[in-house]
Amino acid sequence: MAGWCLVGFLVAVLGSSVLAYPRVTFPENALRSHNRIVSGWEAKEGQFPYQISLRMVNLDGRVNGCGGTIIHPEWGLTAAHCTAT
């Protein structure tokens, strides 16, 4: 029984280490600064009525932006790091 546990443990550890470093490639233009998502396109006004844009001004005057989703007429859902101080 202990032998099978050891085999299972080794398979899990070795398998996760192989999957931890997948090969990722990016298009050439991904390294340049853009104002849109890589391979994205311009959206028409009203095309995504459930999408929100959060714009927050820092104390030093810089503007941070995050997206979110309308989940209720008075509520939006966004990622936690968007509102962390």
TrEMBL record:
Instruction: Tell me the protein's name.
Output: Collagenase
List the Gene Ontology MF annotations in alphabetical order: serine-type endopeptidase activity
Pfam families named in the record: Trypsin (PF00089)
Q: Which GO terms describe its biological process?
A: proteolysis
Q: Which UniProt keywords apply?
A: Disulfide bond, Signal
Entry-linked PANTHER family: ACROSIN-RELATED, HYALIN
Q: By its UniProt entry, which PROSITE patterns does this protein fall under?
A: TRYPSIN_HIS
Q: Which residues form the Peptidase S1 domain?
A: 37-83
Q: Which residues form a coiled coil?
A: none
Signal peptide residue numbers: 1-20
Please indicate which superkingdom the organism of origin belongs to.
Answer: Eukaryota
